[in-house]
TrEMBL record, chains A, D:
It is found in: Cytoplasm. It catalyses: N(2)-formyl-N(1)-(5-phospho-beta-D-ribosyl)glycinamide + L-glutamine + ATP + H2O = 2-formamido-N(1)-(5-O-phospho-beta-D-ribosyl)acetamidine + L-glutamate + ADP + phosphate + H(+). Part of the phosphoribosylformylglycinamidine synthase complex involved in the purines biosynthetic pathway. Catalyzes the ATP-dependent conversion of formylglycinamide ribonucleotide (FGAR) and glutamine to yield formylglycinamidine ribonucleotide (FGAM) and glutamate. The FGAM synthase complex is composed of three subunits. PurQ produces an ammonia molecule by converting glutamine to glutamate. PurL transfers the ammonia molecule to FGAR to form FGAM in an ATP-dependent manner. Keywords: ATP-binding, Cytoplasm, Ligase, Nucleotide-binding, Purine biosynthesis. Its EC number is 6.3.5.3. Its main location: cytoplasm. GO terms for molecular function: ATP binding; phosphoribosylformylglycinamidine synthase activity. This is Phosphoribosylformylglycinamidine synthase subunit PurS. NCBIfam families: phosphoribosylformylglycinamidine synthase subunit PurS, PRK05974.1. Pathway: Purine metabolism; IMP biosynthesis via de novo pathway; 5-amino-1-(5-phospho-D-ribosyl)imidazole from N(2)-formyl-N(1)-(5-phospho-D-ribosyl)glycinamide: step 1/2. The lineage of its organism: Bacteria, Bacillati, Actinomycetota, Actinomycetes, Nakamurellales.
UniProtKB/TrEMBL annotation, chain C:
Pfam families: GATase_5 (PF13507). GO terms for biological process: 'de novo' IMP biosynthetic process. This is Phosphoribosylformylglycinamidine synthase subunit PurQ. Its EC number is 6.3.5.3, 3.5.1.2. Pathway: Purine metabolism; IMP biosynthesis via de novo pathway; 5-amino-1-(5-phospho-D-ribosyl)imidazole from N(2)-formyl-N(1)-(5-phospho-D-ribosyl)glycinamide: step 1/2. GO terms for cellular component: cytoplasm. It comes from Nakamurella antarctica. One of its GO terms (molecular function) is glutaminase activity. CDD domains: GATase1_FGAR_AT.
Length: 84, 592, 235, 84
């Protein structure tokens, strides 16, 4: 078993309404030091050792992310503890 | 150097015409502007000559209750008691194929802004969906995205969904149809139209910031500019091909609606225009063309979401949730205050002038200097060849008489089961369960009714009803009668709910106008619809034409979606759909 | 309408993106009480006798439903007033906001079916001893609209045990699935809960959409609005 | 300006229907090598240098995450390029 993390973010030229709303909330609640917020998705996968990088790339681009508006990054994690 | 006008969709003679109008080579920004505004979608260049038939068949009597008709953002009908209704159906077909969720979502957003721009409060939405075969692989990608996009946007906006259609056919496999309709209500005295009059009045852009989304086609200009001269202000040389999709922000739109209605209520605008397809290109040229003078826009005042956007990109951006208003100088402050209350970005980006020109500057440099009508209204008009397809006779000759009919009880039972479980006839609850039909508390009829019915306001019993219909297969067989059939069905569905039909809108979805057979379908359908309306005595108040719906060389089934608007003076007298509400009911068949 | 009823004033908060404020206000007026519009950016509750946090998609439901609104200026005033006994009702998005603001325990999460669901839903009124439910008879079953994408109530086991033990489960989903029953995977079929003293209450379904059979499935929702008026008149 | 990444995940004992749905889809589309999928959120923040770790922690625990159901991790990133 291996642990893989996939981060999916909205392409930078495309509107991220969630990030925009969070930035607004930070401003209203007295946190002026924030210049930008972008919200993405984070996937924690537990995969069999047989799963190749190519297979990971395929599922990221077809299932986890929408290539039309998002980009992604795949990272194999050291076995150990969960990410949080 | 040759300008990339072909990549922008302009034909050789159209480009020549632009050079003649201007007496010079157009700038990039002008080229971007003309190319979108002269596109089929914005200019109706192939359908205009046929749509004129609606004008010829609409009598003064039919027109008597029409406060605004074809040519405005949406038709407006006086429904009595000081109330008026505006309604329209628009297509968002291609974007919904590329990116189903966002395509459908922004389709809803666009039609709602159209209605809002008339000075009306949007009160209900509808959606007419046509997909490829239910069991085709790509349908599984397209359907859930589109349905949740319509729901996701409409639900967050707080507009009840009061009806629509779902239809499956192989011809839509590579080209689903996503049509969205909206109804708005207003006091008849409060109607607003899109125009920029009064020299010295300010032009205010408000709503979301302008970004690189939905720029798609115009990216050819960016790369072109760079090989030319390095500093045209358009970001990095390596800017990748920009996406042609837009992402909707329904929350921003909801706020925009409330903000705009407060602006209307305080009487702060002269004219107003939504930003839809073609973004600022469309809004500025249409506002100026409908006004009585000219307009000056300072493009550097447009608040941007991306750095280094070129003038052409700013003008072409289809960033959603934006509106453009013309405001007298004494009301600018009050206008900006309302926007501030709703945390809506608002900026004065220009001024109405008496120059008769639309002049747009960017960093003190003139990037557009055109007669606005040449962009917005006097685009090319085509009288395309029309030819009844050769296969039409064979198609019509192929009647159902050759089909085997159920003979035994068993066979009859199987036929009934096969029919009610088929994708085109089964329950639509899988769709309508994802749509809020209750919000705002004025929904009197929605699914499973044949028409949706909305109470106009809490302190009135007046109601407006709407049904939309289209039988694409029948229209394929006979486009003239197919359109009439759709009209008659929508008309009956409105009557069934208890309302009296008053007006008609349409969304004409067809294949390529360059195919004479498709042009024949379009022309027949328009004539059928117009003649049908003349018989029924209700006018077509507006509509939408969507062409080039095809996969490869194969056109979709011709799909003129017809919407009929009705009025009921007391919603408590509505008729509920369905039989068997109570034991002992009598079933009566009307008609032949 | 008695003048005492006319004297009852119930606040209805509007955040950017709130949708069902018009409906909540209409339901309040239906009882003869006055609906007072409260704005998210104000800290003044205008002396109202009770507050309704209505449904909708405040701030687009972005981040987590209710998360951004819970930090609004008006909510600080609501939290203070609630501590002093002001009755507060959260409906749908209002439920999400009250949990995010810490006025009620647990959280409301994405439906287990992941989709937005709109249907007429049967509920059992589990506790008729609160200021928001006193008009219902014990064990009443009511039919009201349900419409949300994030309606799954989740809480720690000990919180759940406490809620159940103290009779703080106010409404429960009932009926046979799939067209009825638990629509979203809520723990213990919970549709609504309340504070220990019953004055802070919330539910996912929409009583304000069930005040007139013309525009809703029933008028079963009216009981909640008459209940609060009763309690205000008793004082 | 500094770049900060915050990852928010649902506590492991709480049902994550999105992760479950993705796992189901992976199985159906011929990817048997996946044992678990959990979906979380990923935030990319651009913050002023004046923003302290304590402020970041406060924002994560009061706004970006709901401590009742979620856990989070804050990471300051090396200035450089965007995450994907
Ligand atoms: N895409 C849709 N959006 C909203 N409502 C829909 C949609 N499709 C169907 N409906 C509604 O579902 C009900 C049943 O639809 P349908 O089966 O097409 O009815 P009919 O066969 O009577 O025309 C109608 O009330 C219709 O308005």
């Amino acid at each position: 078993m291996a642990r893989v993390e996939v981060v999916v973010v909205i392409k930078s030229e495309i509107l991220d309404p969630q990030g925009k709303a969070i930035l607004g909330a930070l401003g209203r609640t007295g946190h002026p030091g924030f210049a930008q917020v972008r919200q993405g998705k984070h996937f924690d996968l537990e995969v069999d050792d047989s799963v190749t990088d190519a297979e990971l790339e395929e599922i990221a681009s077809t299932l986890l992310a929408n290539p039309v508006i998002e980009e992604w990054q795949i990272r194999r994690l050291p076995d150990a503890a969960p990410s949080a | 150097m040759v300008q990339p006008y072909r990549e922008l969709g302009l034909k050789d003679d159209e480009y020549v015409a632009i050079r003649e109008i201007l007496g010079r080579r157009p700038t990039d920004a002008e080229l971007a502007m003309y190319s979108v505004m002269w596109s089929e979608h914005c200019s109706y260049k192939s359908s205009k000559v046929h749509l004129a038939y609606f004008g010829k068949t609409t009598t003064p009597e039919m027109r008597s209750k029409m406060l605004a008709g074809i040519g405005e953002n949406a038709g407006v009908v006086d429904i009595g008691d000081g109330w008026a209704v505006t309604f329209k159906v628009e297509s968002h077909n291609h974007p919904s194929y590329v990116e189903p969720y966002q395509g459908a979502a922004t389709g809803v957003g666009g039609i709602v802004r159209d209605i809002l721009a008339m000075g009306a409060r949007p009160v209900a939405v509808m959606d007419q969906l046509r997909f490829g075969p239910a069991d085709a692989a790509d349908t599984a990608r397209v359907v859930p995205g589109i349905v949740s996009g319509v729901g996701g946007y409409g639900n967050s906006l707080g507009l009840p969904n009061i009806g629509g259609e779902v239809f499956f056919d192989a011809s839509f496999a590579g080209n689903p149809l996503v049509n969205a309709g909206c109804i708005g209500v207003l006091r008849s005295a409060d109607m607003h139209t899109a125009h920029a009059s009064g020299a010295g009045n300010k032009v205010i852009l408000y709503g979301s910031r302008t970004g690189l989304d939905g720029i798609g086609g115009v990216s050819v200009l960016a790369s072109d500019t760079f090989s030319d001269d390095g500093n045209a202000g358009a970001g990095s040389n390596s800017r990748r091909k920009l996406p042609s999709v837009q992402v909707g922000d329904p929350f921003a739109e909801k706020v925009l609606i409330e903000c705009t209605l407060e602006i209307f209520a305080a009487n702060l605008v002269v004219g107003i225009q939504d930003l839809g397809g073609a973004g600022l290109s469309c809004a500025t040229s249409e506002l100026a063309a409908a006004g009585d003078g000219g307009m000056h826009i300072w493009l550097d005042q447009v608040p941007l979401r991306a750095t280094g956007m070129s003038p052409a990109e700013i003008l072409s951006s289809e960033s959603q949730e934006r509106m453009c208003a013309v405001v007298t100088p004494d009301k600018v402050e009050a206008f900006l205050q309302v926007c501030k209350k709703w945390e809506v970005q608002a900026d004065v980006i220009g001024e109405v002038t008496d120059t008769q020109r639309l002049i747009i500057t960017f960093n003190d440099e003139v990037v557009v200097d055109v007669p606005p009508r040449t962009v917005a209204h006097d685009g090319p008009v085509y009288n395309r060849p029309i030819q009844r397809p050769e296969f039409q006779d064979a198609l019509q000759a192929n009647t159902p008489d050759s089909l085997k009919r159920p003979e035994t009880l068993e066979e009859l039972r199987d036929t009934v089961f096969a029919m009610i479980s088929s994708p085109n006839l089964c329950s639509r609850a899988w769709v309508t369960d994802q749509y809020d039909r209750y919000v705002r508390g004025n929904t009197v009829l929605a699914q499973p009714s044949d028409s949706g019915l909305i109470r106009v306001s809490d302190d009135s019993h007046l109601g407006v009803s709407m049904a939309t219909d289209c039988n694409s297969r029948f229209t394929m067989l006979d486009p003239y009668h197919g359109a009439q059939l759709a009209l008659a069905e929508a008309y009956r569905n409105v009557v069934t709910g208890g309302a009296t039909p008053k007006a008609v809108t349409d969304c004409l979805n067809f294949g390529s106008p360059e195919d004479p057979g498709v042009m024949w379908q379009l022309s027949e359908a328009i004539h059928g619809l117009a003649d049908g309306c003349a018989v029924l005595g209700i006018p077509v108040t507006g509509g939408n034409v969507s062409l080039y719906n095809q996969t490869g060389g194969t056109a979709i089934l011709p799909s003129p979606v017809i919407g009929v608007l009705g009025v009921i003076d007391d919603v408590r007298r509505r008729t509920i759909t369905g039989i068997g509400q109570e034991a002992g009911e009598t079933l009566i068949l009307l008609g032949e | 309408m008695s003048s005492a009823v006319a004297g009852a004033r119930i606040g209805v908060i509007t955040f950017p993106g709130t949708l069902d404020d018009v409906d909540a206000a209409r339901a309040v007026r239906f009882t003869g009480a006055e609906a007072v519009a409260l704005w998210h950016a104000d800290d003044d509750l205008q002396g109202v006798d009770a507050v309704i946090v209505p449904g909708g998609f405040s701030y687009g439901d972005y981040l987590r439903a209710g998360a951004i609104s819970a930090h609004a200026t008006v909510m600080r005033a609501v939290i203070d007033a609630a501590a002093k006994g002001l009755p507060v009702l959260g409906i749908c998005n209002g439920f999400q906001i009250l949990t995010e603001a810490g006025l009620l325990p647990g959280v409301v999460m994405r439906n287990s079916g992941l989709k937005f669901k709109c249907r007429d839903q049967w509920l059992r009124v589990e506790n008729t001893d609160t200021v928001w439910t006193s008009r219902y008879q014990a064990g009443s079953e009511i039919l009201v609209p349900l419409k949300n994408a994030e309606g799954r109530y989740v809480a720690h086991a000990d919180t759940l045990a406490e809620l159940e033990g103290e009779g703080r489960v106010l409404f429960r989903y009932i009926g046979e699935s799939p067209r009825q029953g638990n629509p979203n995977g809520s723990l213990n079929d919970i549709a609504g809960i309340c504070s220990a003293d019953g004055r802070i209450a919330a539910l996912m379904p929409h009583p304000e959409h069930a005040i007139d059979p013309l525009t809703g499935p029933t008028d079963d929702g009216l009981g909640m609005f008459f209940s609060i008026i009763d309690s205000l008149l008793k004082v």
